[in-house]
Amino acid sequence: MQLSDFDYELPADRIAQVPIEPRDRSRLMVDSGAGAVDHRHVGDLDRILEPGDLMVLNETRVIPARLRLQRPTGGAAEVLLLETRDDDRRHWEALVRPGGKVRVGEVLSSGGIGIIRMGERTAAGDTFSVELLGDDDPLVTLDRHGEMPLPPYIGERLDDPERYQTVFANEPGSAAAPTAGLHFTPELFDRLEARGVRRATVELVVGLDTFQPISTDNPLDHPMHTERYRVPETTMQACLDTRAAGGRVVAVGTTAVRALESAAARGNLAGRTDLFIHRGFEWKVVDVLMTNFHLPRTTLLMMIDAFVGDRWRTLYEIALAEHYRFLSFGDAMLLDRSR
Question: What is the spatial distance between Cα 298 and Cα 302, in angstroms, rounded to a whole number?
C-alpha cells in the first residue's frame, strides 16, 4: 500500500464554497456497480432506498468553537476548541495561535472580558489544555463570542451559521459537521418514513484530525486520532434486526460508519475509538454508505477504498468530469458494498 493509492488531482474550483439551497437539491451519484452510475439528487432518496432499509445518522452538533481573542500584551490570538474534557464543558483541548508565544495561566479576552485561561500543552504537543471562564453556561459563552469553525478550504463567509448544522443535530460538541447529513430536510425525512425507510442515530464527536492528510509515506503508519462515540443500544439492535430481515444499514457519513463499526469491533457501545478502516477491513454493520467527496491522501478516502475497492477512482473521475461539487458543502455519493 502506497500513499499514491489514495491521491488524485482536485482542482480548486471544484471545492464548493457555499451550500446548495434547498439542502436536498445537492447532486447524488448513485453507484450502480462496475463504474456505472446514476446521476440523481439527494431529494430522490425516497425513490432510491428500499422499504426496510435503516438510515443511521450522526446527531452531533457543531459548536461555535473558533474564538478570536486578545492577549494581555494586546496581540491577537485564535483558539479553536477541539473536544471538551469534562461534563460541564469548562475544560477543553484546543489549538492555539500563536502557540509558541502564549504562556500557562495567560488569560485571553474578548472586548475586555476574560474568555480563555491557558493551560499546559497536551501530550501530543500540538494542542493545549484550556479553561473557559465566566459564570455563564459555556455554550452561552461560545454562542456570544465564538464562530463556526469552517474548514480552511472554504473561503466564503457563511451568512447563516445553522447552514453548517444538520437539521437533526442534537448533542453539541463537535468542531466540524458530519457533512453528509447536511443534505437532509424535514420534508425528505417525511417522504423516507412514508417509503418505509427507518431512521436511527449515533453520536461521534467530529474533530479536525478527521480531515487531515496522511502524514507518513506508508499510509498504514499514519497515527490515527481518537474520537468519542456513542451508539444507543436501540440503534445497534435496529441494525441487527434490519440485516436479519434482509434490509440494509445505510450509514449517512463516514462518522456514522466509524461509530457503528467501532461499537461492533470493540464490543462497546460507547467510548473512544482510534479505529483505522482501510483496505482489507472486515465490515460488520454497514451495507450502504452515503458520503460527500473527500480530499486526496486522507483516511476518509482510505475508508471509501475499503468500502468499494479501487472502483472509487473511476467514480471520482466521473464526478470531476460531470462537475460535481467536492468536500463539505459539495455533492454526495451513494455506495453499496454488494455492488
Answer: 7
